[in-house]
Design goal:
Blueprint (H helix, E strand, L loop, with lengths): L3 H12 L9 H4 L2 E5 L8 E2 L11 E2 L4 E3 L63 E5 L5 E5 L4 E7 L3 E5 L5 E7 L4 E7 L6 E3 L3 E6 L7 E15 L7 E6 L3 E4 L1 H5 L8 E2 L2 E6 L10 E3 L4 E8 L6 E7 L3 E7 L12 E8 L11 E6 L5
Parallel strand pairs: 21-23
Antiparallel strand pairs: 1-12, 2-3, 4-15, 5-6, 6-11, 7-10, 7-13, 8-9, 8-13, 9-12, 13-14, 13-15, 16-20, 17-22, 18-19, 19-22, 20-21
Length: 359
C-alpha cells in the first residue's frame, strides 16, 4: 500500500525539478542567446523568462531533415509501432516552479561546450522508456519490451545541438516548464507524444550553424516501472541523433543577438508616470513605453536592448555614477525609440530584464 505522505513528498521533490525545470546553473552561465521561433498553425505562450520577463510570446518548431521516427533500441526490443494506442499527456500539468540553480541530470550527457556523453550504442538507463523524434520537432515516448512505466515528463523534448568539433553549441529547449504524468503499457502499445514549442538557446561564444546534428532527449521522473527494481528516479531518455535545419531559427533572429544602447525619448517619474500594466509598443510612432519602479533619487534606467522580429528585450539598471539611493519607491515610465531598420510586421512583445540578474 502506498504511503500518501511519502507520495506527496516525492511529488514535491519532483516538482522541484527532477524532470524539467529550466537550465542548470552551469549551463545558465554559458547561455548567450535565446531566440524564439514561430510554429506553423499554432501559437504557444511562454511563461516568465528567468531574467524577470514582463511578457513574451514564444513560438516553437522549425523544419527537420534526415529524420527516422523509429523508436531506438532499449534494454530489449521496442514494441511494434503497428496500430499503437496513443495516449496524450494528462491535461492537468504541474505548474511551473521557481527553483534554485543546480546541475541537471541531462547536463551529464549534453553539457555546453563538451562532447556528447552518449552514443547510439551506449544510452543511459531510462527505466524502460524509449524515445523517438518526429518530423515536426515533437517527440514520442514509448516503452521497451513488455514494460509498463508511469513517469512524469515535460511537455516537449529538448534537442542538444552539436557543432563540427563534436561539442554541444546550444539547444532547442522547451518553451514551458510544465510537467505531465503519463502511463505507458507495452501490452497496449501505448505511446505519449510531447509536442510543446521549443526555442533556440545558444551556448556562450558558440556559433549556431545553419544545419547541425541534434540529439533529442527528455529528462523524466520514473514513478514506477516493471523494467527493473530500482524504483522512482530521474532518468534521461535519448532518441537517435538527426540532422536539423536551423535556418528558420536564425532567420527569425533579426537583431536579437546584438545588444545596443537605447535612446530614451522621454522619462516621467512619480505621479506623472501614469500606470502601465504592460509595455506599450507603438509601431506607427516607432516607440516602446515601459514602466519600472525604484528609488526616486536614482531610478533604474534602460541601458541596452536588442530587437528581434517578435520580442524586444530591455536591460535596466542603476546609473553608474550614482551614490546611495533614498528608500522611497516611485514608478518611472520611459519612452524608448526603436532603432533605424527595425520594422516588425506585428507588434512584438517586450521583456524587461534587470542587469543584476544577468551579470
Amino acid at each position: 500500500m502506498n504511503d500518501p505522505l511519502q507520495d506527496q513528498l516525492a511529488d514535491l521533490a519532483h516538482a522541484a525539478g527532477a524532470a524539467s525545470d529550466g537550465l542548470g546553473e552551469s549551463t545558465v552561465r554559458r547561455v548567450a542567446t535565446r531566440v524564439r521561433r514561430r510554429r506553423a498553425a499554432r501559437q504557444v505562450g511562454t511563461g516568465a523568462v528567468a531574467a524577470c520577463a514582463v511578457g513574451a510570446v514564444a513560438w516553437g518548431a522549425g523544419q527537420v531533415q534526415g529524420a527516422s521516427s523509429r523508436l531506438p533500441a532499449g534494454p530489449t526490443a521496442p514494441v511494434s509501432p503497428a496500430a499503437p494506442v496513443t495516449r496524450p499527456p494528462s491535461a492537468s500539468a504541474t505548474p511551473s516552479v521557481e527553483h534554485p540553480p543546480r546541475m541537471m541530470l541531462w547536463e551529464k550527457y549534453f553539457e555546453c561546450g563538451e562532447p556528447v556523453g552518449i552514443t547510439i550504442h551506449s544510452r543511459p538507463d531510462a527505466g524502460g522508456l524509449v524515445l523517438a523524434a518526429d518530423e515536426d520537432l515533437s517527440v514520442t515516448l514509448g516503452v521497451a519490451g513488455d514494460a509498463s512505466v508511469t513517469a512524469t515528463v515535460p511537455t516537449a523534448g529538448t534537442f542538444a545541438l552539436v557543432g563540427d568539433d563534436g561539442a554541444v553549441v546550444g539547444y532547442l529547449y522547451p518553451d514551458e516548464d510544465d510537467l505531465v504524468e503519463t502511463d505507458l503499457r507495452a501490452a497496449q502499445g501505448d505511446t505519449t507524444r510531447l509536442d510543446g514549442g521549443v526555442h533556440l538557446v545558444a551556448c556562450e561564444g558558440a556559433d549556431i550553424p545553419a544545419e547541425a546534428v541534434a540529439w533529442p532527449f527528455v529528462q523524466a521522473t520514473v514513478r514506477s516501472t516493471t523494467a527493473d527494481d530500482e524504483g522512482r528516479r530521474a532518468v534521461v531518455v535519448a532518441a537517435d541523433p538527426r540532422t536539423l535545419d536551423l535556418t528558420p531559427f536564425a532567420a527569425d533572429r533579426g537583431t536579437a543577438g546584438l545588444w545596443a544602447p537605447v535612446t530614451i525619448l522621454e522619462a516621467r517619474t512619480g505621479a506623472s508616470a501614469g500606470v502601465l500594466e504592460h509595455p506599450v509598443v507603438e509601431l506607427d510612432a516607432r516607440t516602446v513605453a515601459l514602466q519600472v519602479a525604484g528609488s526616486s533619487s536614482c531610478p533604474p534606467i534602460p541601458k541596452r536592448a536588442r530587437f528581434g522580429s517578435d520580442v524586444i528585450q530591455v536591460v535596466v539598471g542603476r546609473a553608474d555614477d550614482l551614490g546611495s539611493c533614498t528608500d522611497d519607491l516611485m514608478p518611472t515610465t520611459y519612452v524608448l525609440a526603436m532603432p533605424q531598420g527595425f520594422a516588425p510586421t506585428d507588434a512584438p512583445t517586450v521583456e524587461v530584464i534587470h542587469e543584476e540578474q544577468i551579470g
